[in-house]
Design a protein that fits this description.
The chain is of the alpha/beta class and 196 residues long. Helix content is 40%, strand content 19%. It has six helices and seven strands; from the N terminus they run ααβααββαβββαβ. The strands form three sheets. Strands 3-4-7 form a three-stranded parallel sheet. It has a two-stranded parallel sheet with strand order 1-2. Strands 5-6 form a two-stranded antiparallel sheet.
């Protein structure tokens, strides 16, 4: 099956399952620089595009041996990128728009650059923006003799927790003014909560 025949089959399936969606297809020869370069160039031609990719999620040796198109696109594409990894449950993709968009914020202006896109994707009455701030459970001070020292009191940690909540409240209030549904949560995690 040629690349064009393959895309035509996929297009036919999508049009029959999602008749309200316009589907276009294009076959582009791969030049030197590989698929990631082509994906970034094609996306750059479309100012309103979001690049969506599935990824094997390889790391370490697997990524070194086989490369990672998804990683290269994520690092170099001038458009937003949505990656779906091998752990994603097939039921997560349905015919409906997402009911909730998880927006992670760390307090930096860089992290907040996602807000305009998330706002457009959520749209008034379509989805809830769930603002999430994940913070270290305890500030670790300078390394002394190969070990990090805890330098924050409980009172200091509580002040930080309150500041995190106030930060999310400010962001949420601005989004609610735009007619969006927003919830928020600031959470502290330690390494025992991380499954990898």
């Amino acid at each position: 099956v040629s690349a064009k025949e393959y895309l035509d089959q996929v297009k036919e399936t999508l049009v029959s399952e999602y008749p309200e969606v316009t589907v276009a297809s294009e076959v582009v020869p791969m030049p030197d620089g590989g698929a990631a370069r082509v994906l970034c160039e094609v996306a750059a031609r479309e100012p309103e595009s979001i690049v969506t990719l599935s990824t094997h999620g390889r790391g370490g040796l697997g990524r070194w041996m086989y490369g990672s198109v998804a990683d290269a696109v994520l690092r170099h594409c001038s458009r937003p990128v949505c990656l779906v990894g091998p752990s994603c449950e097939p039921t997560a993709a349905s015919h409906a728009e997402p009911a909730r968009l998880l927006v992670t914020l760390d307090g930096s202006s860089f992290a907040e650059t996602i807000l305009p896109l998330a706002t457009r994707l959520a749209g008034p009455g379509r989805a809830t923006l769930h603002l999430l701030r994940v913070a270290d459970p305890l500030y670790l001070g300078p390394e002394i003799l190969g070990r990090r020292s805890a330098v924050r009191s409980e009172a200091s940690q509580e002040r930080t927790r309150v500041q995190d909540e106030e930060y999310l409240q400010r962001i949420a209030a601005h989004l609610v003014e735009s007619g969006l549904s927003v919830d928020r949560k600031s959470t502290r995690l330690n390494s025992s909560h991380i499954p990898f």
